[in-house]
């Protein structure tokens, strides 16, 4: 019996293997946060004093805390 070299996989088979590996649950970078509809939930740390001011402004505007924070971020980004 003669010794033969192993055949190399074809390019299309290599692409299939790469696609299979990329589909694994632990492949790639995990996206942080939780998706809620078309928005992304994040974690934010605020000093108690600033949080009290945000809550007071939210009550004055009749909005939620999240709405006031979103509005402030939007205005800061648009001002840039």
UniProtKB/TrEMBL annotation:
The record, for SUPFAM superfamilies, names: Ribbon-helix-helix
What's a GO biological-process term for it?
regulation of DNA-templated transcription
Q: Which residues form a coiled coil?
A: none
Q: Which Pfam families match?
A: RHH_1 (PF01402)
Question: In what residue span(s) does the Ribbon-helix-helix protein CopG domain sit?
Answer: 41-80
Please name the InterPro entries in this protein's record. CopG, Ribbon_hlx_hlx
Q: What is this protein called?
A: Plasmid segregation centromere-binding protein ParG
Q: Which organism is it from?
A: Thiothrix nivea (strain ATCC 35100 / DSM 5205 / JP2)
